[in-house]
Amino acid sequence: MNSLLDILKRIYPNMLQDMKQRYDLMRHVNLLQPIGRRSLADVMGLTERTIRSEIELLQEQRILHVTNKGMFLTQEGKYVLEQLVPFIKELSGLNELEQKVKKQLGLEKIIIVPGNSDEEKWAKLEMGRACANYLDSIMTPEATIAVTGGSTIAAVAEQMEETDGDNQYLFVPARGGFGENVEYQANTIVAKMAQKTNSSYRMLFMPDVLSEASFNTMRHEPAIHAVLERIKEAQIVLHGLGDAITMARRRDTPQAIIEKLIDEEAVAEAFGYYFNKNGHIIHQVVSTGIDLEDLVTKEHVIAVAGGLSKAEAISAYFKTSYSKTLITDEGAAIGILRDASL
């Protein structure tokens, strides 16, 4: 494909630019639908006149459906969009970027989407869509999927396709709850995933961080114990990654511990563990649900995190070798390679 692209770039440069622009338009509509023309122009940084002419062309091809509520991508449009993905990734250099990051982090599977989710909301939705598609490809009948909280994992639930038939999947929260945003809690996310896939879910009514005495008492409650057992049995774990100090503050961590994390240069957090840039654990909290040792027995452990600001945290976490699958964005990927070259 590389040689063909090189020829096309030389002979039909405008054709490739037009194709990339139409692909981007279709991708944005798919992520943000229903969306109006003016909003789409703002998101893409194009004039309304340009957007109007592109929409008319795509309508004629039955790729877009325009209503009073806004634009939608048709089923045919979704098919065309998916078929274009490999070509556009090659055209934009994302395939090469994937191979470089895969080698740098020692991964088995990586998916990099365009954009930087620190600055572009649609990039986080794009990560969600990519993860939802990948999850759909690996879920087996009667699979149990353990899911953490956070805005990025919430985007995965949002981008899942709704299914009509009954499924035997079971979604469970990988961790207890913390923070104030209900929509980002693991319990809320598993309920939405189950609704989208017409399957089942369980909730865990425990805070993420407890004293050791409280944890030992609560985990023996029959209802809680039953859910914890299902969590431990999960074949697939889907989780986000956090900046260490940000996550410590969200957990209302005592100031003395935060100062320790700063002094020992903590950069990443996952499953209640805090890591320095070398991937060494420097602090652990007593918390509910899955911990690092549980990941060793899982068939699939998928980390989803993006944004340039997460590059250091991603690099640190993958030095632990607990996960070999990453779904991220271009901003984080470029940051990972930049930091590795310093």
Automatic annotation (TrEMBL):
Q: Give this protein's Gene Ontology molecular function annotations.
A: carbohydrate binding; DNA binding
Q: Which UniProt keywords apply?
A: DNA-binding, Transcription, Transcription regulation
Entry's InterPro entries? Answer: CggR_N, NagB/RpiA_transferase-like, SorC_transcr_regulators, Sugar-bd_dom_put, WH-like_DNA-bd_sf, WH_DNA-bd_sf
Ranges where the CggR N-terminal DNA binding domain occurs: 19-87
Q: Where is the Sugar-binding domain?
A: 90-337
Family (UniProt) = Belongs to the SorC transcriptional regulatory family.
Q: What is this protein called?
A: Central glycolytic genes regulator
Q: Which organism is it from?
A: Cerasibacillus quisquiliarum
